[in-house]
Write a structure and sequence with these properties.
It contains nine helices and two strands; from the N terminus they run αββαααααααα. The chain is mostly helical.
């Protein structure tokens, strides 16, 4: 059998651009051969970050999404700084309180040892000492008082007066029951001032003005915002009210002092100003002084 010799078909010319890198514009415009796939630039491959899982910019050396977030070390440093702020704030509040408590305890001991002689002089000494301590602390931690002396809406000042009347009525009722049922001795807030020249004026200054201004500055102006940096507002108000009551070293008066302190803290945080708390405190103590001055003795 013989075979006829037929020529092979002609070899087609090469495709345009075969063997060269193919960009996005060429894909789909012409068939891609093996050589063309091998020639694709590596930078054009889609990559994903192993940390955040987001698509990695093909021309970037690092993940831009991760770079835009603070590093773990930076976050740890921020947490440490926040902890230091809270620790220093709590420490300052504790030192202020125990400084005031030390003055109160010292005065109580001296009054007891001296047989309650010179009581007014010793109480005045304690008030002056506490006022100076609070002023020094207010200068040192003046940042805590930012906005504390802003004038509040008139409604908050008006509300503070009846709240002071309510806390006074609560105190009067509780202590009247204790005196009637348990024969608790009655203390008179006015007796040390009666008989003195300008005694009523001195009584207003010593019983009403000094506590309303300086105790509120110390407790609701400095201690309360210090505690708010580490506690919730409710917790800070409650703790401040408790230690405020303890400062007076009178167990029987603790319930109404805590109640008054809690309401003062509530007014301070809700109004944003110290003035309503001062008005409440002044109203409460003024009613105590008036009651004792005009014959209705009240243990406070």
């Amino acid at each position: 059998m013989t075979h006829s010799a037929e020529p092979f078909p002609p070899i087609p010319p090469p495709l345009p651009g075969a063997g060269e890198p193919i960009g996005a514009a060429q894909i789909g415009a012409a068939p891609i051969g093996i050589g063309a796939v091998a020639a694709l630039p590596i930078a054009q491959a889609i990559r994903f970050c192993r940390t955040c899982g987001r698509e990695w910019d093909a021309v970037a050396q690092t993940c831009t999404a991760c770079d835009s977030r603070p590093a773990a070390g930076s976050r740890n440093e921020q947490a440490r700084q926040q902890y230091d702020v809270e620790r220093r704030s709590i420490s300052s509040a504790v030192w202020l309180y125990f400084s005031l408590l030390a003055v109160s305890i010292f005065t109580m001991i001296v009054i007891t040892v001296s047989g309650e002689k010179h009581t007014l002089a010793l109480v005045t000494f304690a008030q002056v000492a506490m006022s100076l301590i609070i002023i020094a602390w207010a200068i040192k931690d003046r940042a805590l008082l930012r906005g504390a002396f802003a004038v509040p809406k008139i409604g908050w000042l008006a509300l503070a007066v009846p709240v002071g009347v309510v806390t006074y009525a609560f105190a009067h009722g509780v202590l009247w029951v204790l005196h009637a049922e348990l024969h608790v001795p009655v203390m008179n807030a006015a007796e040390d001032y009666q008989g003195l020249p300008n005694g009523l004026l001195l009584g207003v200054l010593g019983v009403c003005v000094q506590p309303a201004v300086f105790e509120e500055l110390g407790f609701r102006g400095l201690i309360l915002p210090s505690l708010q940096r580490a506690l919730t507002t409710f917790e800070a108000i409650t703790v401040t009210a408790l230690i405020f009551g303890i400062l007076h070293l009178t167990v029987l008066s603790l319930p109404h002092l805590v109640a008054m302190g809690w309401m003062a803290g509530w007014l301070r945080t809700r109004s944003g100003s110290l003035y309503p708390a001062m008005v409440l405190h002044f109203t409460h103590n003024a009613l105590v002084l008036a009651s004792d001055w005009y014959g209705g003795s009240l243990l406070w």
